[in-house]
């Protein structure tokens, strides 16, 4: 089976069955007993709405494991959920990690997976998985460029001959956009928003490029001055201004990667264009914005949210053929 351990969502792909599980990476814990109350979608509903003795935590921060124990318990829960309570489930697991991950973080992933009941753990780098999942010919001697904008990290990579030529991983992605919206509204309207509301705004009217439609949405939050709940109406242009900075960081990462790219491959990318995947690829106008900034053709993958899981799933299906993409042992 293959696991895409994302900051926002965890997807699990099982050999022969496709993606069987797609849940938010959130765990709700009862602090008195230390027991797990809910995992996934159930727990996500609890974020920002919990009583004192329950905390809803996201065990992964910026694409890497922040809370080891909880990640391990979450993985174990997912593995058991899929294997329909066969207690001796010891699957071979392929896990995706960001490309800019340190050795320690990599070991944490391997350790957590084996503790959660994996027989063998293989690691694949996210941009590689995203490229395979978007259906790019990664094994050919041509340059493929992938921009994977997830919840915690944005990965930009140029791939050729089944390996990563240049890659850059920045910790600015979906969460950072939500955060920028929260800060902006706090400053402009002195209104406090929750994480989930901010995410909702980003999805409904967020855009990275000036689209002609001027949409408005009303948001509810707590007024910092009076302390009472209050609604304000904000426009798409304002949201665009709020997320300007993180979007610029993403655009810059794409530019620096192109800058480090060998000239032969640059030519290939000019022909084939850049593929956007990950949840951030759904931000409206982002493709247009990158097209303007880089002058390259930009394509959005077919189902950007699942492409990493599909790619790592393909590695599970064709384990022998794609063996060279996986690192069974961490690179020392």
What does this molecule look like?
This protein has 11 helices and 18 strands. The two termini are 25 Å apart. The protein has helices at 41-46, 68-82, 103-115, 126-133, 174-189, 195-205, 236-242, 244-260, 263-272, 286-294, 307-317; strands at residues 2-5, 9-14, 18-24, 27-30, 36-39, 54-57, 60-61, 64-65, 92-97, 120-125, 144-149, 154-160, 163-170, 191-192, 216-223, 229-235, 274-277, 298-300. By secondary structure, it is of the alpha+beta class. 37% of the residues lie in helices and 27% in strands. It has a 5-stranded mixed sheet, sandwiched between helices.
In short:
The chain is α+β, with helices and mostly antiparallel strands.
H-E string:
EEEEEHEEEHEHEHEEEHEHEEHHHEHEH
Beta-strand proportion: 25-35%
Overall pLDDT metric:
85
CATH C-level name of the largest domain = Alpha Beta
Strand arrangement across the biggest beta sheet: 3-2-1-9-10
* Main sheet attributes: strand count, strand direction, barrel closure: 5 strands, mixed
Determine the oligomeric state from the structure: single chain
Output the keywords.
cell shape; 332 residues; 5-stranded mixed sheet; disordered C terminus; Nucleotidyltransferase, domain 5; 18 strands; 11 helices; cytoplasm; MreB; MreB_MamK-like; Actin, Chain A, domain 4; alpha+beta; flat; Cell shape-determining protein MreB; 3 domains
């Amino acid at each position: 089976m293959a696991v895409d351990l994302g900051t926002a969502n965890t997807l699990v792909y099982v050999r022969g069955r496709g993606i069987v599980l797609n849940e938010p990476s959130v765990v709700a814990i009862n602090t008195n007993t230390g027991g797990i109350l809910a995992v996934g979608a159930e727990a996500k509903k609890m974020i920002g709405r919990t009583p004192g003795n329950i905390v809803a935590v996201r065990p992964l921060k910026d694409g890497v494991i922040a809370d080891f124990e909880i990640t391990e318990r979450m993985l174990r829960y997912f593995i058991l959920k899929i294997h329909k309570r066969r207690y001796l489930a010891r699957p071979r697991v392929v896990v995706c990690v960001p490309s800019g991950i340190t050795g320690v973080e990599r070991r944490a992933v391997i350790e957590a997976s084996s503790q959660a009941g994996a027989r063998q753990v293989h690691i694949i780098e996210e941009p590689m998985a995203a490229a395979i999942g978007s259906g790019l010919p990664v094994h050919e001697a041509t340059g493929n460029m992938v921009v994977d904008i997830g919840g915690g990290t944005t990965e930009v990579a140029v791939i050729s001959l089944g390996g990563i030529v240049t890659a850059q991983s920045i910790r600015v992605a979906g969460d950072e956009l939500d955060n920028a919206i929260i800060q902006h509204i706090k400053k402009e309207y002195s209104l406090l928003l929750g994480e989930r509301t901010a995410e909702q705004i980003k999805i409904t009217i967020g855009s990275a490029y000036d689209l002609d439609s001027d949409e408005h949405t009303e948001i509810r939050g707590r007024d910092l001055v009076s302390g009472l709940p209050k609604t304000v109406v904000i426009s798409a242009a304002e949201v665009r201004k709020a997320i300007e900075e993180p979007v610029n960081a993403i655009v810059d990462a794409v530019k620096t990667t192109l800058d480090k790219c060998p000239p032969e491959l640059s030519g290939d990318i000019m022909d084939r264009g850049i593929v956007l995947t990950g949840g951030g690829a759904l931000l409206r106008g982002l493709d247009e914005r990158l097209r303007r900034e880089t002058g390259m053709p930009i394509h959005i993958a077919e189902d950007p949210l699942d492409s990493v899981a599909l790619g790592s799933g393909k590695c599970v299906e064709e384990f022998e053929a794609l063996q060279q993409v996986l690192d069974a042992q961490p690179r020392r």
